[in-house]
Amino acid sequence: MVSKRKLSKSDVPGENSKTDLPKTKKSRISDKEKASAQDGVENDGVFEELLKTSGIILKAGEGQNEIAVDQTAFQKKLCLALKKHPTYPHVVQEFISGLESHIKDRNQFKNCLLPCAPTRNEGSRTLVHSYCESLIKLLLGIEILQPAVVTLLLEKIPEFFFDIVGTFGTNFPRLIVNQFKWLDRLVDSQDLVKKLMQMVGVSPVPIQHDIITSLPEILEDSQQTEIARELSYLLKQGRRLTVPILDALSRLDLDAGLLAEVISDLRKSLDLSSCILPLQILGSQKKLKSQVQASSSMSQVTTSQNCVKLLFDVIKLAVRFQKDVSEAWVKAIENNMSVSDHKVLDLIVLLLIHSTNTKNRKQTEKVLRSKIRLGCVPEQLMQNAFQNHSLVIKDFFPSILALAQMFLHSTHPAMVSFGSCMYKQAFAAFDSYCQQEVVSALVTHICSGNEAEVDISLDVLTDLVILHPSLLMRYATFVKTILDSTQKLNPCQIRKLFYILSMLAFSQRQEGSYIQDDMHMVIRKWLSSTVPNHKQMGIIGAVAMIGSMALKRNEGDGSLERSELNSENDGQLSTLLDLVGFCCEQTPEALALYYDELANLIEKQRGNLDLQLLDHFGKSLVENFPSDFVVDLNPTVDGVFLFPLKSLYNLDEDESQGAIAINLLPLVSQSELGRVNDGVSNPSKRVISPICLSPSFRLLRLYTGEQNNGSLEEIDALLGCPLYLTDLEVEGKLDSLSKQEREFLCSLLFHTLNWFREVVNAFCQQQDAEMKGKVLTRLQNITELQNVLGKCLAATPGYVPPPATFDSEALEAVSSISAAGPVKKKNGRKKKPDGSKTCFADRSQVDDSSEGNQPDTELSELEKTAAEREAGNPLAQLQSYRPYFRELDLDVFTVLHCGLLTKSVLDTEMHTEASEVVQLGPAELLFLLDDLCWKLEHVLTPGLTRRVPFSKERGYKDTGFSHLCQKSPKEVATYVVKLLKPLCNHMENMHNYFQAVVTENHGVVDGPRVNIQEYQLMSSCYQQLLLTFRFLFAWNGFSQHENTDLLRSALQVLADRLKPEETEFLLLEELISESFQYLVNFQQSVPSFQCAFTLAQLLIAIAEKPITSWKREKIASLAKQFLCQSWVNPNGDREKGSQFNGALHTLLCVYLEHTGNILKAIEEICSVGVPELINSAKDGCSSTYPTLSRQTFPVFFRVMMAQLENSMKSIPAGKPSDSSEVQLEKLLQWNIAVRNFHILVNLVKVFDSRPVLSICLKYGRLFVEVFLKLAMPLLDYSFKKHRDDVQSLLKTLQLSTRQLHHMCGHSKIRQDIGLTNHVPLLKKSLEQFVYRVKAMLAFNHCQEAFWLGILKNRDLQGEEILSQASEERDSNEEDSTENTAEEPNGVASESGTDSSDEGTAD
């Protein structure tokens, strides 16, 4: 007690001297201290004595420690007291021991960790701040105490490993760690951080969490990099500390390299699948959210979602406030090229950055587009993100909407598909506001008028109305507004729109009644319109409504209300059918469209329509068709016609009794007569037109099949019945006919062909051998009639055929272009337009300036092959008349399975009288393959490369593909995969045929025993087969994960041809290799260069899944083999023409791109092939490269120049750190490249045509620019070590640049705009080259080696161009200067000016 009194005596004066309090105040404080002595700490050791002396009063129990002085003053007083203590430094240890004893009590320890309270004096203000640090933190601020206090605190943490909060209600570890934050100075920061990281390794997760999140406030700047690496390593060890580590890393200042490395590691270690909810919780999540009371399941949902939410909140904070973090994330995702390594996390982070950081938005969009194109972010990944993490992604909805809109604007099919999937997933996963925005965006796309956007947006709405009809019904008002913009929609889009509206109107019954009223009103208005386009839309819309109303009812629901609704529905259906029939019966085109739409409806909804409702129009159809188009077969027919009537193409001649015939010629005569008489007809009588023959038969056979479970026995007589036509032996008779007669004959042939096409469509799937034989015969009839029609069309210019497809809005535009036909002179050649020379110059000028390695073409693959096949053919090309033929169904191609068929000829007693062999011949095979290729190109080829086959102007792209467009690309690809076996059989037959031809003629294609017509026909079949394979395997849908099984099935068919029954368990890569090898075997039999070119493209399409080194070598070897092969027609002429040149261009690019050493390949062509060409006759070619002739030299020259320039870009630029060996290797590559460039440039002296000059000027500039960018840095650093090599390189290049300078002068003399356009940029590059060489010499301290001379303007042959007036005396001086400049002891290289030359001395 004595010591306590002494402390009081010494303490009070101290306080008075510091605060200058009055005496009354002093006595009052003393009394208060005495009164509260029982609340204070009564221990009177050094620890308590020094604290009280310095201004802190320790409290016991729940009370806070009190501080009576400023914190800084306390620390100074305590530090001074310790240092002046008699036992210093031993007193420090005593002080720490006292502290340790004091904090053994948990309450006292808690007081020491919590902030001190300022001493409150009654009646006066305190000078202490209202907030004070804790006692421990104040002690840590004293340097002589800090190490011991740190050790003491860290030793206390393990005491709370198993009682972190629990008993005492206080998180002591967190309070302890908080003491280390924001200290003014750390005596030994390395030791502290090391001990903290050791503590992380042994602590429970909550303590680890607290330590890690506190590190950014504890670390010094120099320690951040090291600790970031340790945290990144911890992140790899497990997922328990993911959130605190992300939190800590986001607050550390890391350099860009380390940040990218950390984020890359983070991407690999983070796996959101651990946060995915269990299926049973996912299923009940929406239900649980709607409940007010909480449950255990809801708790699990919340916990799981909060985990992911917290994770992305941390990333979002880092991205928002630290620019480097967002850039590092984007770079880490961009650099990851493996498809399998991309995760849901990547997609969500990209959406997060796009939504949060506007500055990185463009970069994010670029990365996302790139990943989608490469297939790294498949749609399945996006679906997982939306389905499992919708709460996180919902925050990014504006970005999702913006990205989806951007993707739909794209022309890349993968991006368009991804954008449409984003819309569907957002609609399904988000709330009503987001759903409304999605529907509004889709409606905006549809009303934009962009055809591609309209198609994909309608497809999205179609999927939504099928998957979520009740949800979409809420926004039916938005969808209904599209009816105001129908003028921008084509017929197929109108069909989709009314299908969507009909589903909404009739699937929800009462809720959709207001949509029904609007649809009825619009359709009535359109049907009553006299505008053909409006009537067309009305028919399409009405049939779509009929389809929804005629769907089968739910038989289990027999309620009165349901019955009344069905009765009302049937009444509406009957009224609508009568209305459409009445509005169409006077217009054949409208009636034909009505029949076609009903037929499409039955085919699409096969098995789902109410048969009783079908009878409403089916009965009248069954009655009308025979009465309108079918008559009894009689030897004589009454009537007067333009041509004598004759019954043709009867396949049932043995059935004389009850035979029928198609009354075609009388109907066509009646129709033509009606056209002449301005269409006068009885308005009360239904019009019977041959235009309706094929559509009504299509509807009849689909209706009959639907009623009889696919059986067509009731109408099978129509397959073999004859037609009333006329004698079709037109050879030599066409010139004697009038224009009207020729047009009548053409119309008759078109109707006959369309009838046969529909007959083949109808009966192609019949299994009876007799029926199959008749179908093959009808195919033969089609090919025969097409030959006759071709001759008639060639003699009837300007003829417009009768329409065959009725849902096209651009048919008139097509006919005006295509029907004109080729205009011929009397000698049979096409008449050239006026100014043909100018036109040729303009065309060549455009062609010469085209960019890249691909030739400028305006034709699709099929147009090219058709043009090649029909070159020189006197028949008019039928390709331009394709929209006037009825479309073949995909089912027709099952005929390809047929081999030899035996058709029995029966006698009157139904006994077999004879047998006739019916075979699918080459002409029929070519007909089927040609149509199949058109279909595959239309469906499987991306929109960027596909072109409308019928029209060169804007039109409806689906004309002639109405039935096909109702199937998805995957459905079409699946169907073709099933045809691969018969296609392989046919291709092997072609291979054997041409092998036999070559063997029989001893390797000579144009031998005397070759049947030229048969050879050309088989060659065309071969080409179409290869094109079919190529279109299939080049389909970009195979790159999608969901189509992998389909690709495997296709490859397995090819691999089975080599290894039967051994491919079932092969890996995909092995199947690709076997399929590749199978197709390579056809190289020996390809009959034409077009076939060879297509085979190379097919091999590339298969090898790219993925391509390996041996496949590259094989493709290069194959391409070289084709280039080194002489391609001769059966008539002995060498193949040539624009199509040949285009294929040669591509094949040469394939060879150079896939060869192992492109420089060596170019040098071989230049040093071997070109000299052989120069030494050959005028119309000769190279013996090593027979495809290299004077006509094809510009093709070779363009490809070699372009590929040489591209290959140089792969040589890395020189660096100061490169070793001597690396420099020498790069110099060697540049020496070879420059030597090749020199050879190519000098070839212009021999081949000085305008295209070659233009190519040389363009690619010469590009080569010089690449040399300046990549080679000159190498010369800077290798000049001293490899001076001779550098000098040799510059000498060779100088000779080439001088020749380029002469070309510039030559272009000016010729005054050719196409050539002179290249001159300014080329001269600029040449001038840059001069000064860059000077800079290189200066860099190596050889300025004296650089000199300038005067370079005259010369032409290609080196003759001087006197472009300016010059005197004779000046001329002699300039000649002397020029001779000096060309001395061999210097390296000269001219600039872009007309009078400078430079060089380097040895």
Mean pLDDT: 78
Percentage of helical residues?
A: 55-70%
Shape: flat
Straight-line distance between termini: 105 Å
Structural class: mainly alpha
Strand order in the sheet with the most strands: 1-2-3
- Parts with pLDDT < 50 across at least 5 consecutive residues: 1-38, 275-301, 555-563, 676-681, 810-859, 868-876, 901-914, 944-955, 1364-1402
Largest sheet: 3 strands, mixed
Describe this entry's structure for a reader.
This protein is mainly alpha-helical and 1402 residues long. It is built from 59 helices and eleven strands. It has a three-stranded mixed beta sheet with strand order 1-2-3. Strand 1 and strand 2 (66-67) form a beta hairpin. Helix 3 packs across helix 4 (71-84) and helix 21 (379-388) packs parallel to helix 24 (413-429). It is flat. The N and C termini lie far apart (105 Å). The N terminus and C terminus are likely disordered.
